[in-house]
Design a protein that fits this description.
By secondary structure, this protein is of the alpha+beta class. It contains 21 helices and 31 strands. Belongs to the beta type-B retroviral polymerase family. HERV class-II K(HML-2) pol subfamily.
Length: 720
């Protein structure tokens, strides 16, 4: 059939469906157009005739010379006898010149390895040839180890064989192999003879960086269990495990959910049948050295490290006195230093049971999984070498350890906080920084603007700008500075602007509700799951608690802002609500600017490792930076922190006479108006006792006295 294998497989299966329904007892396997029918006795003539006629209805015909009635039967390159199955003659491609040749060779071996017993250990030299390849035509040649491995594989292909399944006997799964290369065998015990049905192998490269022994064997048993169900339609009757006794089952089940699910409902045994394969199986003699619960009467040791000082070490109590052991290794990451601290602790107290307390969740996670673990691909070579060293130290230990994580600087009573504080002070060292270095480190943490650095640390403008320009997260964007005056309140808590923007990295909490005081530029933001009024109400209540209650809130005409519930809520709080400024298309400019500032800060904080924080915590930190670290300009050209301006400033107005443009009449007005404040593009004016109103700055010009004007206003004018 000249079409895709998938279509061929589907079409033949469709053609066989009617015959399968009529004759349910025969087992029918087919791979595209190669069909195998297995029955306890020879197929009857009527069944054979119906089989041919059924296929002919779909245009499929069986060549008489292709029919095999006696053993040995040849099927898909295998030779099948009454009791056994073995691989037919197969010549492996030993001439290797490129990565593509290696890939084809490994692919051919993978196809037959499950009934030839070709282990991961046999294939490892070939897998090594595939590593670090970037081009299919990249040159590759067999190494001496690969040549030797290929000879072993060819010998297994020629000599190995598996047995056919006998429904009269139960199926068992046996774990075998060395500690580094575990595999499983699906077999049946037929009287005193072990009949191997198939081999099952784990993945060569584990999915996790560190896979515990319990998870490793548990996933292998699950894979074998699923294979037994798929091929034989039954569950394994027993798992034979490389334990000295079955006493480990409870401890392993508590350590690994994967192992607990795999062995659920299956009998466990430690008695291997008499067979040469199991003479080299590595037996697990002991339980895990790393315990899941604290160890009584054990020494408690506190470890810590500092990336800033390059110091790492541990502390412990001896007769009510704290003792320290500190090392210095600058230029390395905190992860490496934290692991080194634990390694040195295990070396120093090699013959004592230990309770280890660390403030590094990463280091604790590695220690709790490393005992007899399978190590996969780890980020850097330095960390990989350190993890392998840690694994060797733990495997050589005889005394148990327990390792736990605690948050630093919790200030709680008790030995945990006390010990953590002792080692934390020891590795932190004295903080003596010059202003420029202190400003650089502050910007690495807060990502504030150059103006904020200049004011807080007393730097020159060029120094502050150089620090921001050197930051990879802030260099592409201009520093956070006040850009002119958008219509705003004449004092704090006079006029707010509220709006919603989306930040997809927060997932369900992607809707950021933002309110900003238009006078002080103090801001508050909330990450919520919707834009409905219930979310708006929640945000406003939080903002009122932080910034106080404003006299007016300005929004757009979104349904959540202009609905009945919003109007009722603001009325209860005594807040006036407006939705726009006539003839102004950028009335929400201040809050829109704050949207950009918040998103930029969130992106910078995420790159700096703050991804471990929750969305609410990251947003709170961004608001802190905007309110406390980024100064804004006032009308008198001074710079001040927004939160200080919000709580300390008084209403400040100019009260200068001006003339305004009347867009309805298309002419300048004739009434004298008072200018309260003005800025880049906007001005606030009022006529008599009327409330202030905001207009574009181009609609305002100084009041110049004309003939007939009163003596009182003569000579008064404004300077723009």
């Amino acid at each position: 059939m000249r079409n895709s294998p998938t279509m061929c497989q589907w079409y033949v299966d469709l053609a066989l469906q009617k015959w399968r329904e009529k004759y349910s007892k025969p087992i029918v396997y087919h791979y595209m157009d190669d069909i195998l029918i297995a029955t306890p006795e020879s197929l009857s003539e009527q069944a054979e005739t119906d089989f041919k006629e059924t296929l002919q209805q779909f245009g499929l015909y069986i060549a008489p010379e292709k029919i095999q009635r006696r053993n040995p039967w040849l099927y898909l390159g295998m030779m099948v006898t009454e009791t056994r199955v073995r691989q037919g003659k197969l010549k492996l491609q030993s001439e290797i010149n490129t990565v593509n040749d290696v890939q084809k060779l490994v692919g051919d071996i993978q196809w037959i390895r499950t009934w030839c017993g070709i282990t991961n250990e046999d294939l490892e030299p070939l897998f090594e040839l595939l590593k670090d390849s970037v081009d299919p035509l990249e040159p590759r040649h067999l190494t001496n180890k690969a040549h030797d491995s290929l000879k072993v594989i060819e010998t297994k292909i020629e000599q190995q064989q598996v047995y056919r399944y006998d429904p009269e006997y139960p199926v068992m799964v046996l774990v075998y192999g060395s500690q580094q290369y575990r595999s499983a065998i699906i077999a049946q015990q037929i009287e005193k003879h072990l009949a191997i049905l198939e081999w099952v192998f784990p993945s060569y490269q584990p999915s996790a960086s560190v896979t515990t022994l319990q998870d490793y064997i548990g996933s292998l048993l699950l894979k074998a269990k699923e294979r037994v169900r798929l091929v034989f339609g039954v569950d394994p009757s027993v798992f034979v495990l490389p334990w000295k006794t079955t006493d480990l089952i409870q401890e392993w089940s508590l350590c690994s959910m994967t192992f607990a699910l795999a062995v659920n409902g299956v009998q466990l045994s430690t008695h291997y049948p008499s067979h040469p394969l199991f003479q080299t199986t590595s037996i697990i003699m002991r339980g895990p050295i790393v315990k899941q619960k604290p160890i009584s009467n054990a020494l408690t040791v506190f470890t810590d490290a500092s990336g800033r000082t390059g110091k790492y070490g541990f502390a412990w109590q001896d007769n009510q006195n704290w003792k320290l052991k500190i090392w210095t290794d600058t230029g390395k990451s905190v992860q490496i230093l934290e692991l080194q601290a634990i390694v040195e602790t295990l070396n120093w107290f090699s013959s004592q049971a230990l309770n280890i307390v660390s403030d590094s969740a990463y280091a604790v996670s590695v220690v709790n999984r490393i005992d007899c673990a399978k190590i996969g691909k780890i980020g850097t070579l330095e960390i990989e070498e350190l993890v392998i060293r840690l694994k060797g130290i733990i495997q050589e230990r005889k005394e148990p350890i327990w390792c736990c994580h605690m948050r630093s600087h919790t200030n709680l009573p008790g030995i945990f906080s006390q010990g953590n504080a002792v080692i934390d002070r020891a590795v932190a060292g004295p903080v003596v920084l010059r202003n420029f270095e202190a400003a650089r480190q502050s910007h690495e943490f807060f990502h504030q603007s150059s103006r904020g650095l200049q004011q807080e640390f007393g730097l020159s403008r060029s120094q502050a700008r150089n620090i921001v320009a050197a930051c990879p997260d802030c260099a592409r964007i201009a520093p956070l500075q006040q850009h002119g005056v958008n219509p705003r309140g004449l004092g704090p808590r006079k006029v707010w602007q509220t709006d919603v923007t989306e930040y997809p990295p927060f997932g369900r909490l992607k809707y950021l509700h933002v309110s900003v005081d238009t006078h002080s530029h103090a801001v508050w933001a909330s990450a919520l799951t919707t834009t409905a009024f219930k979310a708006v109400k929640q945000h406003w209540l939080q903002a009122f608690a932080v910034l106080g209650v404003p006299e007016m809130i300005k929004t757009d005409n979104a349904p959540s802002y202009v609905g009945h519930w919003s109007e009722q809520f603001l009325k209860q709080w005594g807040v006036k609500h407006v939705t726009g400024i006539p003839y102004n298309t950028t009335g929400q400019g201040i809050v829109e600017r704050r949207h950009q500032d918040i998103k930029r800060l969130l992106g910078a904080l995420k790159k700096e490792g703050e991804i471990t924080l929750s969305p609410h915590d990251m947003l709170a930190k961004a608001c802190y930076v905007l309110n406390w670290k980024n100064p804004v300009s006032t009308n008198d050209k001074q710079t001040v922190i927004p939160i200080h301006l919000h709580y300390t400033s008084q209403n400040s107005v100019l009260k200068m006479p001006v003339r305004t443009w009347d867009p309805k009449k298309g002419a300048w007005g004739t009434e004298k108006e008072t200018l309260f404040t003005w800025g880049r593009g906007y001005a606030c004016v009022s006529t008599g006792d009327d409330p202030p109103r905001w207009v574009p700055a181009k609609w305002v010009k100084p009041w110049l006295e004309k003939k007939g004007d009163s003596e009182e206003t003569r000579g008064q004018q404004t300077v723009s």
